[in-house]
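Q: Entry one of two.
A:
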Amino acid sequence: NFPGAIEDFDASIAALVDMDHPILPSLETQRCLALIYFGEFEEAIRRADFSERIAERTHARFLVFSSRALGNYARFCLTGAQQSFEDFAEASLRLISSGRQQRASYKLAWIADAMGEKGEANQARVFAYRTFRRALKGDRLGEAIAARAMARLNARQGDRD
């Protein structure tokens, strides 16, 4: 129910009195994720850039990198630009390596998917494995993405199993 989700995001943001509140970029990154799933890449980019600016002003480092990652992934989806993918992967891996595992599975899965599309099978499998490990810990946002990525990769390689 993406339209309903967007309405809920709008209502939550409208309830904020202070538009420099650190919760705003958190809400916006979640909205970006929904927009990306819905294929609304241009709006996701706009929201991610806005979220990054607010996160910088409120010194919310995690949300700066989350916003940057989401915006660059949406750019990659929209344009296919390799630099956007690299910027997304860098911001994502920087977050994950800092110990912030919150919602890491979808980032890992998107990296697995892109690596598979580029024909980098071993790297794709490594990131899919990391995604499935996160799913076992309850972070299941990327589980289906990684499964589809591995199915497509295996099909391209002629491995029906």
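Q: Entry two of two.
A:
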Amino acid sequence: HVVLPQGPTVREAEEFFAKQLSVANNVIHISISSKIEHSGYGPALEASKSFDNVFVIDSGHLSSSQGLMAIVAAKMAEEGLSAEQIVKELEAYKKKIHTSFIVDNLDFLSRAGQVGNGTANIVKSLMGRPVLKLRKGKMGVGITYFGAREQAWKAYISSTLSNASAIDTSILFVTYVGLSKRDT
């Protein structure tokens, strides 16, 4: 089975922006990292050129971090900041965001052509639990934990939260996919 990710077209983005502008004066579109294949950033940026009041930001991250930025942008809008000020603040804010996640295997990334089959099979055969990180907008494999799933999760969480003084606890997303109720 092959996964074929597909982003929006320029026309779809233009139609989306036009619809949003029917109820708003400005649109700030926060895209997932432009360095992730099919992110939608390119078509959105191109579509924004058809409007004077559409701003497109490359978050440099994936959806959870994109969500964090949207929450921060909404707070700034409520405070009365202009669209230009919000964009400027978000460009600085995105550098403070950390995106990583631990996975049981690399099968999905292998099917999407982002990781070779050989790498995915080696990691799986060694019972590796790789951590995927975004660095400078690109996804890569970080450390790999070995052993039982729960043990790997605990080690990952402990490592991720080890520098608690550097963590902004006012907003935190913890995303999980494919876990049973017992595991959450």
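A: Comment on entry two: The first helix runs from residue 10 to 21. The chain has a mean pLDDT of 89.
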